[in-house]
Design brief:
- There is one protein chain.
- This protein is α/β, with parallel strands linked by helices and 344 residues long.
- The protein has one domain: Ribonuclease Z/Hydroxyacylglutathione hydrolase-like (Metallo-beta-lactamase, Chain A, 4-Layer Sandwich), CATH 3.60.15.
- It has eleven helices and 16 strands.
- The strands form four sheets. Strands 2-3-4-5-6-7-8 form a seven-stranded mixed sheet.
- Helix 5 runs antiparallel to helix 6.
- 45% of the residues are buried.
- The structure holds zinc ion (ZN).
- Zinc ion (ZN) binds next to loops.
């Protein structure tokens, strides 16, 4: 699913360890990630004499922290980082929040559910993950070998996230943020994460899209072991549907890839992509099928354990959506494995 978005800077990217101005008062930093998704975008918002408001922090890994040292030394024009905003609890976003707070003293702003999720994931013992996650993956119909590999992957959170600050400031839909003369309106939504924050600036026709408004890849929307009957896709599609009021030429600053225009075309393609997957899931489930059966039809390429974790979560997200809509039924067989079949 490719949308012909308009990348306003073409192929240009900020150099590692530098901040590139994208619009007046907003600077773009690109940090590396050790995954297939190999980078994350962070933004610095100029808050005049107060300093810089940072949006997202990168993973708490040595290469990123080394680049942070360069940014702190060379890119802030003698002003401090005065506030840290984190869009959601995933490691590439919240990773260095605690580390940077220690360095700068800046308060942390997050939505309540994202902050709680970060705190819980950071505190959760590896044993707990290994106790519950394998049973969940077994019930999806994945084979024993893969279930074991998924258990062994464990919880990455500890290695990628510095201790999450125990005190935070809450971002809610009521809390418009005034930063350097711009007013940013938070848009909270579930899907890729439970209470993700986009920041919308109507006056300047801009939106910081986080992981919810990506130009190229479809944000992962997965069901996880701790909420096996969850329906995050309903939240995400509702969010995409709700953005009609934005101007057609709004500039989107996303967390991955590059700043772009043509949001509405992009939204339409993302929604169409999920509808294609609903159709495929319904087709497979004409005969009783497991989430794994559906996954192998949705993702035909070879998947390693790490990719399988996202793929099975995505497959289940589409299936749970259809169950909630009354179009599929979920029944557990004698081994507790879920089978999905067209509702009769
Ligand atoms: Zn994310």
């Amino acid at each position: 699913m490719k949308t012909d978005v308009d990348y306003i800077y073409g192929e240009t990217l900020p150099e590692p360890g530098t901040a590139m101005e994208v619009v007046s008062g907003i600077r773009w930093i690109r940090m590396p990630l050790p995954f297939a998704l190999d980078h994350v975008n962070l933004f610095l918002l100029d808050d005049s004499d107060e300093g810089w408001v940072l949006v997202d922090t990168g993973a708490a890994l040595k290469p990123t922290q080394d680049l942070w040292e360069q940014v702190l030394a060379n890119e802030l024009q003698g002003k401090p980082i005065s506030q840290i905003i984190v869009t959601h609890f995933h490691p590439d976003h919240v990773g260095n929040a605690g580390w940077l707070q220690e360095r700068t003293g800046a308060p942390l702003w997050m939505s309540r559910t994202e902050w709680l999720s970060a705190r819980v994931n950071r505190a959760e013992a590896q044993e707990q993950f290994q106790q519950y996650a394998p049973e969940f993956y077994r019930r999806t119909g994945l084979n024993d070998l893969l279930v074991e590999e998924l258990r062994d992957l464990g919880n990455h959170f500890h290695s990628l996230v510095s201790p999450v600050p125990p005190i935070y400031r809450r971002i809610s839909e009521e809390s418009a943020l005034d930063i350097g003369g711009r007013t940013w309106v938070p848009i909270l939504a579930g899907g890729h994460s439970p209470e993700h924050v986009c920041l919308y600036c109507p006056d300047d026709n801009l939106v910081l899209g986080g992981d919810f408004l990506l130009p190229r890849i479809s944000p992962n929307v997965s069901v996880w072991w701790n909420e096996p009957e969850g329906n995050p896709l309903a939240d995400y599609i509702r969010f995409l549907d709700s953005l009609d009021y934005m101007e057609p030429d709004i500039l989107v600053l996303p967390s991955h890839d590059r700043p772009y225009r043509r949001l509405h075309e992009r939204r339409a393609d993302l929604i169409a992509h999920h509808h294609e997957r609903f159709d495929l899931a319904l087709e497979v489930c004409a005969a009783p099928s497991t989430a794994a059966d559906v996954m192998y039809q949705m993702f035909k390429r070879q998947l390693d354990a790490h990719q399988s974790r996202f793929a099975i979560g995505e497959s289940l997200a589409h299936l749970n959506y259809l169950v909630d809509e009354g179009r599929l039924e979920r029944v557990a067989d004698d081994n507790g494995i879920w089978r999905f079949v067209a509702a009769g």
